[in-house]
Design goal:
Layout lengths: L17 H9 L5 H5 L5 E4 L15 E15 L2 E9 L10 E6 L2 H6 L5 E6 L2 E3 L2 E5 L2 E5 L5 H4 L3 E4 L8 H14 L21 H7 L4 H31 L11 H9 L6 H15 L5 E6 L5 H14 L3 E6 L2 H15 L6 E4 L4 E3 L21 E5 L12 E6 L7 H8 L6 E6 L5 H7 L4 E5 L9 E7 L3 H13 L3 E5 L14 H12 L4 E4 L5 H13 L4 E4 L12 E6 L7 H8 L9 E7 L4 H12 L3 H12 L1 H5 L18 H17 L9 H10 L9
Length: about 700
C-alpha cells in the first residue's frame, strides 16, 4: 500500500464518515498531519490499574471494573445518571465505586450493565460513599481492536463532541499506518543526525511501550516546536532591524533642563536604560525594545526621555496607554514637567482632546507640525494609532502595559510607512522563559530598583473577622489626612460568583467611614464620570476610593497610603502586586491589607507570597508555578504558534537552547536562502501574523 502525503484532507478518506468529519473540523483536525500532531494530554497504564479507593483523595485514579447497576432519576432541576462499578478481580476485598453524572443524559445511552469500564477521576466522600462525579470514562468492548485501548500504556487525546476519545485514538492509530511520516519535516535537526525525523517518533508519542519512551519522544518534539517559535521571533527581529529607519539622536538640551528641574536624582538603573534607548534611537536601525520595570520603578520618566529625544529630532512621539484613566494621568504628569519648558503635550482619547496651548490660546495641531515649538508629544489610548487619523511625522511609539497590547497590534505598528522606533513597557515582571517566548523579537531593558524616597509598603493577610479593626485603622489614617483604596473583584453582585461587588459595598463604606468622603470608580462608568472621580481623588477631595481593577495600572496618588483588597483570593497574584503598586508612591509608610474569608491550600499560599515579598520578579516566578504558563501568557498575545507538548517551566533549558540555535542559523543565513532551509521558509510563511496595513 502506498503511503499518503501528510496534507491529505480527512474528508477524502473512506474511513472518516461525514458526521465524524464535521466533528473533527470543530477540533481543528483537517489533515492526516493534524491527526499525527494531535498529541495525548495524558497516558493511562492499563496494564495495571489503581486499586479501588476506600477514601477520598485529591489525586486522580484510573480504575477498571464491571458495571453492576445503573439508575437514572430526577432530583429537583437536576437529572442524575448513576452506576455502581465493581472490581471483579478483587471481589469482596474491594468496595464498589459509585460514578455519577449530572444533567448529562447522553452518558446513559453509552453505558449498560455488565459493560467493562475504565474510569478516571478523583474519589470523593459523599453521604458515606466513595463517589466519582463526572469521571472520564471509556467502554472496553470485546473486539479485535481491544488491544489498542487495553493492556497497554494507553494515550488519552483531547476529544470533543462527536469524536469520543476511543474513536479519536482509532483514527490516530490508522493515520500512523497510512501517512508518509518521513514527509513531515523536522525543523531542528540534530547536528549529529542527518537522517529525517525517525519514523517511530510518532508511534512513541502516541502508543509508547513505556512512559520513559513517551518522554523521550516528547522532548524531541518539544525541541522542534521551540526551535520553530524562536526561529520565527529571531527572523521577525532581524527583519525589523533591517526594515529601514532614521537616526533620531536629538541634542540632549531639553532633557538636561528637565533633569535639572526634577526634585530627585535618577537611579543608576534609569540612567543605564535611558542610555540604551538613546543609543537605539540615534542609530539608523529601527528600535524595537521592551522596558521591564516593577511597579514604581520609574518607567514613565524613561519613556519621557525617549519622547523628548524624538521631539528634539523633529519628530512626533506618542505614548499609548491601555485605559483613559492612565492616559490622562500620564498627560497631567507630562504637563507638570514640560509646561515650564514650553514643550507641547497633547492628549487624545475617545472622550477628550487637550493640549498645551499656543501663545494665542489655541491648541497645536495634533497631526501636523503647525505648532511653533515643533511637533507635539501625544498621549492617548491604544486606539489612537488605529483611528482614521494620520500622524505627519511619527518618530517614536511608546506602548504602556505591553501585556494588554498583542503581537498582531505590534506588527501593525512595525508595518507603518514612517518606520517609527517602538518602545513597549510593562510593569508586570516576566519570568525569563516567558520573555524569551513572548518578546523574543524585542531587545530587553530592565529597571532594577525604584527611585529613592519611596515609602515602605507593609502587606498583611487578614481574615474577615478582623474587619472592625481594619475599619478603625482606615478611619484613623484618613482623619490624619491620608487616602485609601478599597478594591473589589466585581462591579455588581453576581448570582454566579459569591464575591462582594464594588457598587453594593460603596454605600456601606460611605456610612462606615463618614465623615470621610468616599468615591466609586469602575469600568462601566462613562468617561466623564470616571474622570471627575479620579480628579477629585488626586486633589484630595475624595479620601477613600472604592474601585475595581480599573485602577490596576498607572494611577499615581502619592498621598494614598492604604489599600484594602477585598476577596483577595479571587485575584491573580501578579494582579494583586500591580494593585499594591498604587500605594507607596510617596515618602510615607503604606499598608496593603489582603482580606479573605478562610482561604486555604493554593489560595492561602498565593496570598502568603505577597505577604512575604514585594519583589515583582519573585512574585512572577511564584505566579508561574501556581498558575502555569498558560494563564500567564493569556489570550492577548495572538500571532504566536502554540507550544504543543512544551512546558515553559519544565522545558526552560530547551527554550534557551532553541533560542541560541535559531540566532546562530540566521547569522549564517539571514534570509534562509540555502535550499536546505526551504522547509523553514515555508514554516515562517505559514506562521507569520496577518495584519492590516497602517497608513503612515
Amino acid at each position: 500500500m502506498s503511503l499518503l502525503p501528510p496534507d491529505t484532507t480527512l474528508d477524502t478518506l473512506d474511513w472518516v464518515t461525514r458526521q465524524r468529519w464535521t466533528a473533527l473540523q470543530r477540533l481543528g483536525l483537517l489533515t492526516l498531519e493534524d491527526l499525527v500532531r494531535h498529541y495525548p494530554r495524558r497516558y493511562e497504564d492499563r496494564r495495571k490499574f489503581d486499586r479501588f479507593p476506600d477514601y477520598a483523595s485529591e489525586s486522580s485514579v484510573c480504575l477498571f471494573g464491571v458495571v453492576k447497576k445503573t439508575s437514572y432519576r430526577r432530583f429537583g432541576p437536576r437529572r442524575i445518571f448513576e452506576l455502581t462499578l465493581e472490581d471483579e478481580e478483587a471481589g469482596v476485598l474491594s468496595s464498589p465505586l459509585v460514578c455519577r453524572w449530572y444533567n448529562m443524559p447522553w452518558v446513559q445511552k453509552m453505558i449498560a450493565t455488565e459493560n467493562r469500564l475504565v474510569v478516571f477521576g478523583k474519589p470523593r466522600l459523599r453521604s458515606r460513599q466513595i463517589v466519582m462525579e463526572h469521571p472520564e470514562f471509556e467502554v472496553i468492548e470485546d473486539d479485535a481492536e481491544a488491544s489498542m485501548h487495553f493492556d497497554r500504556i494507553t494515550p488519552v487525546h483531547p476529544a470533543g463532541d462527536g469524536v469520543p476519545v476511543k474513536v479519536l485514538r482509532e483514527y490516530i492509530h490508522r493515520a500512523l499506518d497510512v501517512t508518509d511520516l518521513a514527509a513531515i519535516p523536522r525543523l531542528w535537526p540534530d547536528p549529529a543526525d542527518t537522517n529525517p525525523l525517525p519514523l517511530d517518533i510518532w508511534r512513541s508519542i502516541h502508543f509508547p511501550q513505556s512512559l520513559e519512551e513517551a518522554e523521550i519522544a516528547r522532548v524531541q518534539l518539544v525541541r522542534d516546536v521551540f526551535f520553530g517559535v524562536q526561529l520565527q521571533l529571531a527572523y521577525r527581529r532581524s527583519r525589523v532591524k533591517n526594515s529601514g529607519g532614521l537616526a533620531r539622536p536629538g541634542t540632549g538640551h531639553l532633557w538636561k533642563k528637565v533633569e535639572d528641574a526634577l526634585p530627585f536624582d535618577l537611579t543608576p538603573s534609569q540612567q543605564e536604560v535611558m542610555a540604551e534607548i538613546s543609543a537605539d534611537m540615534a542609530s539608523p536601525h529601527r528600535m524595537n525594545r521592551l522596558l521591564q520595570g516593577d511597579v514604581g520603578s520609574g518607567k514613565t520618566l524613561v519613556a519621557l526621555r525617549a519622547m523628548i529625544q524624538a521631539h528634539e529630532s523633529g519628530h512626533q512621539a506618542v505614548l499609548m496607554a491601555p485605559t483613559q484613566i492612565l492616559a490622562e494621568q500620564h498627560y497631567l504628569n507630562f504637563r507638570r514637567i514640560l509646561d515650564p519648558l514650553g514643550i507641547p503635550v497633547t492628549l487624545r482619547t475617545a472622550a477628550r482632546q487637550e493640549g498645551t496651548p499656543d501663545a494665542d490660546g489655541t491648541l497645536p495641531g495634533l497631526f501636523s507640525e503647525s505648532a511653533p515649538q515643533g511637533p507635539p508629544l501625544v498621549v492617548g489610548t491604544h486606539a489612537v494609532l488605529f483611528e482614521k487619523t494620520t500622524f505627519e511625522n511619527l518618530g517614536l511609539v511608546v506602548i504602556d502595559e505591553q501585556h494588554k497590547f498583542g503581537v498582531l497590534q505590534r506588527s501593525r505598528l512595525i508595518a507603518r510607512a514612517d518606520a517609527p522606533d517602538v518602545l513597549v513597557m510593562t510593569a508586570t515582571p516576566i519570568p525569563r522563559t516567558i520573555t524569551q517566548t513572548l518578546y523574543g523579537d524585542l531587545d530587553v531593558s530592565i529597571l532594577k530598583a525604584p527611585p529613592a524616597g519611596r515609602g515602605k509598603i507593609l502587606t498583611a493577610l487578614r481574615d474577615t473577622s478582623k474587619l472592625p479593626d481594619i475599619i478603625a485603622f482606615i478611619r484613623t489614617e484618613t482623619t490624619a489626612g491620608r487616602q485609601a483604596y478599597i478594591v473589589y473583584p466585581l462591579i455588581e453582585e453576581s448570582e454566579k460568583l459569591v464575591a462582594k461587588a464594588a457598587s453594593a459595598e460603596y454605600e456601606k463604606w460611605r456610612e462606615l467611614l463618614a465623615p470621610a468622603t468616599v468615591g466609586l470608580v469602575h469600568g462601566r462608568l462613562d468617561a466623564e464620570s470616571k474622570d471627575a472621580v479620579m480628579r477629585d481623588f488626586r486633589s484630595g477631595r475624595i479620601s477613600v476610593l472604592v474601585a475595581t481593577t480599573v485602577i490596576e495600572v498607572g494611577v499615581d496618588v502619592p498621598n494614598a497610603t492604604i489599600m484594602l483588597i477585598e476577596d483577595a483570593a479571587r485575584f491573580g497574584l501578579s494582579q494583586m502586586h500591580q494593585l499594591r503598586g498604587r500605594i507607596g508612591r510617596g515618602a510615607a509608610k503604606s499598608y496593603c491589607i489582603l482580606l479573605h474569608s478562610g482561604a486555604a491550600d493554593a489560595n492561602l499560599e498565593k496570598l502568603q507570597v505577597l505577604e512575604k515579598t514585594s519583589n515583582g520578579f519573585d512574585i512572577a516566578e511564584a505566579d508561574l508555578l501556581l498558575r502555569g504558563p498558560g494563564d500567564i501568557l493569556g489570550t492577548e498575545q495572538t500571532g504566536m504558534p502554540a507550544l504543543g507538548l512544551g512546558d515553559l517551566l519544565r522545558d526552560a533549558e530547551i527554550m534557551t537552547e532553541a533560542r541560541r540555535a535559531a540566532q546562530d542559523l540566521l547569522l549564517r543565513d539571514p534570509e534562509l536562502l540555502d535550499p536546505e532551509h526551504s522547509h523553514l521558509r515555508a514554516y515562517l510563511a505559514k506562521n507569520e501574523p496577518q495584519q492590516d496595513s497602517v497608513s503612515g
